[in-house]
Amino acid sequence: MTVCLLLLFAVAVTAAVPVPRALTRSAWPERDPVVALWVWQCLVATVLLCCLTSLALGAAAVFGTVRTQLFASAPPAVTAAYNLSSGPPWAATLTLLLAGGAAWTTAMLVRELVEARRRRALSRAHLRERAPDLPAGLPRARGPLLVLEDEYPDAWWMPGSPAQLVVTTGALHRLTDHQLDAVLTHERGHARARHDWLLHLSTALATGFPRVPLFSHFCDQTHRLVELAADDTASRRCGHLTTALALIELNQHRGVLSCASSHRLLGERVDRLLEPPPRLTPRDRALTTATAALVPLLPLLITFAPGLTALT
To answer: Taking the mean position of all CA atoms in its chain, how far away is CA 167?
Structure first.
């Protein structure tokens, strides 16, 4: 058991500290942000699985009831292979710390979802107030696209079921038909990929564990990469130049394609659209995706290795 816990600790530290720092210095995520988002999610899943499996092993070593439940259907040889009865003296402290971390993580996730739901309700109420009045007998617009009378050029998407795209009349007057199509395609890319869930997860983890490099980098990179991914969705349909022009037009004051990380990201995105970087080859894309998918299997392999060895 001690060996398992040490290996899980080593994997978690490696995935949480040096790998994220190296990944943020790499240039390839800009070439394929969708694959980069997948890699970040796999790293986060690896750390969380390391903590979860360590908590299960520690609780089994400390509490006999937990051990009985976990190994109720396992052969005696499997239970003996873990040697839980002679766990290390620090197993109890580790179990308490991991249990507290699990509870704190759950609380942060719930808090983020509750806050997001509250903000969404306020935004929808505000939209209902701003939506133009319709003749008597006609229902108010509740479709996927809502047009607001406002000379300020703006557009955004509102997560929900279904997601709703909102665009102002100022944006309709400022943008050409092709640029407007690029804007709406960008926002549909967010909605179809459900980027809101990824943003909520990254924000909750970064808020709950601000000193863990993986979670802070995950939050920053997620906000950046989802915009690049949506830019790619728009540029594939409408062209790089059209998407870049739409980005510039709407961000003269602050518009749909802008992001909370300010003008540096805006300039980076415009440059990227005007001079698209070479995309990953299909072979590199498949290899990176498959390798990242295998990384979260390491905690499971380490955890189940003693039991599998005993069975063989």
So the answer is: 26
Q: Which amino acid is at 165?
A: L
Q: Pick left, alpha or beta for residue 24 (phi over 0 → left; psi -120 to 50 → alpha; otherwise beta).
A: alpha
DSSP letter for each residue of 231-293: HHHHHHHH-HHHHHHHHHHHTTT--TT--TTHHHHHHHHHHHHHSPPPPPPHHHHHHHHHHHH
Percent of residues in the chain assigned helix, strand, coil, to nearest 5: 75, 5, 20
Cα 183 to Cα 21, 53, 180, 228, 239: the distances in Å are 33, 44, 5, 13, 12
Q: Give CA–CA dist 33/232, Å, rounded.
A: 9
| Cα(220)–Cα(207) distance, integer angstroms | 12
Distance CA 206, CA 227 (A): 19
Q: Find out whether 186 and 257 touch, Cβ atoms under 8 Å.
A: yes
Examine the pLDDT at 192 and tell me if it is beyond 70. Answer: yes
**Is the model's pTM score more than 0.90?**
no
Paired tokens of 181: 């199509």
Distance CA 260, CA 274 (A): 22
Distance CA 199, CA 204 (A): 8
d(CA 195, CA 123): 18
Q: What span, in angstroms and rounded, lies between the C-alpha atoms of 194 and 41?
A: 14
In 10 A of CB 302, how many CB atoms?
22
Check pLDDT > 90 for residue 191: no
- pLDDT digits 0-9 by tens, 226-235: 999 999 999 9
* Confidence tier at 259 by pLDDT (50, 70, 90): very low
- pLDDT tens digits, one per residue of 194-234: 899 999 999 999 999 998 999 999 999 999 999 999 999 99
Could you give the strand order of the β-sheet that contains 145-148, starting from the edge strand earlier in sequence?
145-148, 164-168, 155-158
